[in-house]
Amino acid sequence: MPAAIAGTARSSARTFHHIEATAEDGYDTLDRDMLADIPLVTMGLVIALIFIYAAQLRLAFDVNASGGPSLLSLVSQGATSYKMVVGDGQWWRMFLAPLLHSGTMHLFGNCIALLLVGIRLEPQVGRGWFSLIFVASALTGSTLSILYNAADIPGVGASGGISGLVVALFVASFFTDAGAEERWRMQRMALFFGGPALLPLLYSTGGSTDYFAHGGGALAGGLITFLLKSD
Predict the structure, then answer these.
(1) Max alpha carbon distance in the chain (Å)?
(2) Dist. CA 153–CA 155, nearest whole Å
(3) Distance of CA 183 to CAs 31, 39, 70, 173, 230, Å?
(4) Helix (H, G, I), strand (E, B) or coil at 80
(5) 198-218: pLDDT as tens digits
(6) Do the beta carbons of residue 69 and residue 57 sit within 8 Å?
(7) Is the pLDDT of residue 3 over 60?
(8) For the chain, is the Cβ count within 10 Å smaller at the N or the C terminus?
């Protein structure tokens, strides 16, 4: 082979190898980015809450009028109240109550909010921080629930943790690089779920909804996300 042709062939081979390596690197990066954007923690939480509720129904002593576990069943399964947690020293209830639900609609509403908010928030903050926000918000919500509700009123539900995620989404929207349109989508979703969950704290805290748990979760979620994003 003439020297000029051989040199051209070697140059072409090196160029092809470079392009091939670059393409592979690009696919690897794309795969990593796609995997990072899949809200695995969100989906895992939703599935876990559904399975836990199914276990609640199976283990319930009785069901209420809406088909959910009776009040006695909820208490035996881990509901919180000041009397049981502080008075009787049953601190384990603080960790278990946020995973329980009082009825199918209670579970359904929480799972829908968790799924829609988590899909947008988890890729923004990462799985570790997302998990931390949920756990810290759930525990803070349970704490305010037992401190500000009547001492003998039991409470259950993931609403505290979810309220924390909702406010975290709102706070994260001000730090996102995704653009103005995506920022507005995040804020709109946060307001859609956060308004009904938190506004009643301004004028009423009665009824069957534990707004103190919502408020506690919102404070924790907002604070953690602000510290994370403003660092």
Answers:
(1) 95
(2) 7
(3) 25, 18, 42, 5, 16
(4) strand
(5) 988 887 666 678 999 999 999
(6) yes
(7) no
(8) C
Question: Tokens in use for 216?
Answer: 């506690």
What's at 168, amino acid-wise? Answer: A
Q: What pLDDT, on the 0 to 100 scale, is given for residue 30?
A: 44
Q: Which residue, among 109, 124, 90, has the nearest Cα to 49 in the 3D structure?
A: 109
- Residue 92 to residue 149: CA distance in whole angstroms: 19
The two tokens of residue 60 are 């319930």
**How many residues in total does the chain contain?**
231
Alpha helices for 61-175 (secondary structure H): 71-77, 82, 93-96, 104-125, 127-148, 159-173
Span 111-120, pLDDT tens digits: 999 999 999 9
Q: Which residue has the tokens 């696919």?
A: 27
Instruction: State whether residue 152 is helix, strand or coil.
Output: coil
Q: Give DSSP secondary structure letters for 16-44.
A: HHHHHHHHHHHHHHHHHHHHHHS-HHHHH
pTM of the entire predicted model: 0.83
Under the phi-then-psi rule, with left for phi > 0, alpha for psi from -120 to 50, and beta for the rest, what region is 207?
Answer: left
d(CA 182, CA 173): 8
Q: Which two tokens stand for residue 126?
A: 């990462």
Structure tokens at 179: 């653009």
Rounded-to-integer distance, Cα 11 and Cα 3, Å: 12
CA–CA gap between residue 162 and residue 109 (Å, rounded): 11
- Three-class SS of residue 229? helix
